[in-house]
Amino acid sequence: MVENGIRGELSSEAIQKLQSYTTKERLFPNLRAVRLWNVTRRFTPFIPLFLSPNTTTINIEFAYRDLPNSATAARAISTFVSLCPNLQNISFRLLPRGPTIDVAVSGILLARRDTLQCFHTDSPLIEEARRVVCQLPDLRELSVFINNDTPFPTLVLPSLTKLTIKIESDHDSDWSLMLRGAVFGKLEYLTLDLGSEHTGDSLEEFKSVALAASVQNTLLEFRLYTLRSWNPNYSSLLPFTQLIRLIIESSCNTGCSSNVDDDVITNLARTMPKLETLLL
After folding, report:
1. Exposure pattern of 41-70 as b/e (b: 16+ CB <10 Å)?
2. What does the alpha-carbon distance between residue 125 and residue 199 come to, in Å, rounded to a whole number?
3. How far apart are CA 233 and CA 202, in angstroms?
4. CB atoms within 10 A of CB 249
5. 3-state DSSP call for residue 101?
């Protein structure tokens, strides 16, 4: 395993050393897990040097204040398919935006659909990749990004235990459409990150689709984040009696308000006896 957090500009000596290697050389030919965070634009072209046919896990977080351009990042990411034939776990965070990135990330998913167990990305996927990722029988963890141009089909993921949906869309229903009629075996962790300013009655919508998917008896953790200040109807959560962690967060940019009172707390306490973490 290599774990690397880059907290400053790479020295000229380090750059020259990395440049001395060719793309056919592997720095660590037996490396199984590569986790790189705060990856800067200067370091991005060298990511493939750390990969090998033995690499099964890649976790990359790019530097928010020093993002590479989309073309440079896409070139590095596109090499993963040929360099890592046995990829099982992929995670990308803070990816630069652009069509070339969407194609590169989607290409990994499409090429490794038979081996992937965990797939996390905060960039849109092309249509074929969206269709495929929603029906991978062995997928255990999934994080996807939805915007106005990237609707997802209904999820049929019998092995999935952890799901994160991040939304930047004007249509509140986009996230619920992929859960409506969904098939899960044992979904335990669900996170909804509603970037839209229009949340509607998100908890009631969650209740409707979650009960239809029969996850009320398996769900252990539910998180919901929104950019809008709102007053949730917490009674919508009462059917989820197995919850251990419940986190509901909203923005205070336009002022905060809350309808949490004694009845809300009492009802949650009575119906969720296993609850260990509560944030409202």
Report:
1. ebbbbbbbbbbbeebbbbbbbbbeeebbeb
2. 23
3. 9
4. 12
5. helix
Map out the domains of the chain as residue ranges: 1-133, 145-280
Cβ atoms 48, 23 nearer than 8 A = yes
E strands in 118-202: 118-120, 141-147, 156-157, 162-168, 183-184, 189-194
Tell me the C-alpha distance between 156 and 131, whole Å: 10
Over residues 25-38, the pLDDT tens digits come to 677 888 999 999 99
DSSP state of 121: -
As given in the structure block, the two tokens for residue 158 are 């019998």
Exposure of 121 in the CB half-sphere (CA atoms within 13 A): 24
CA distance 248 to 239: 16
Max CA separation in the chain (angstroms): 67
Residue 231: CB partners within 8 Å, gap ≥ 6?
257, 258, 259
Q: Which of 74, 69, 9, 75 is nearest to 43 (CA)?
A: 9
Dihedral pair phi/psi, residue 6, rounded to 5°: -95, 115
Give this prediction's pTM.
Answer: 0.89
Query: Across residues 143-171, what is the average pLDDT?
Result: 86
- Residue 247 tokens read as 């986190």
Give the Cα-Cα-Cα angle 243, 246, 247 (nearest 5 degrees). 165
Contact 55, 87 (CB under 8 A): yes
Each residue's pLDDT tens digit, 69-79: 999 999 999 99
Of 215, 259, 267, residue with least CA distance to 233: 259
Q: Do the Cβ atoms of 188 and 207 come closer than 8 Å?
A: no
